[in-house]
Amino acid sequence: MPIVHGITNLYQELYYTRGQIAKIHKFGLFSKIENIIIDCLELAITAALTERSYKTPLIKKLKIQIEVVKKLIRLLWELKIINDKKYLLFSQKLVEISKMASGWIKYLNREPV
Length: 113
Hints:
Elements: H1 2-18, H2 23-26, H3 29-48, H4 52-78, H5 84-109
């Protein structure tokens, strides 16, 4: 389950960044991002442990949540809440997770052998 590992790593980086964020931002936008990432982790684990026929809707929902997180992370950066280095780190991890989810959907949509 490499996607689960990727989401876990993303959350860990976000968690470590939390200490560098002003209190006013921790409980607003930053908290929302953390909650969505935890939801993504739950969706990925659920999809991994679900029957093949039920996986696709879960992974599509996961992809949507990942796109929302991408936009919110960009907003953190635009508001100068996180620096360029953190923004690039989070963005790279999110792109990697998004590619894994897309690959998973592609794999599920191919004809079973």
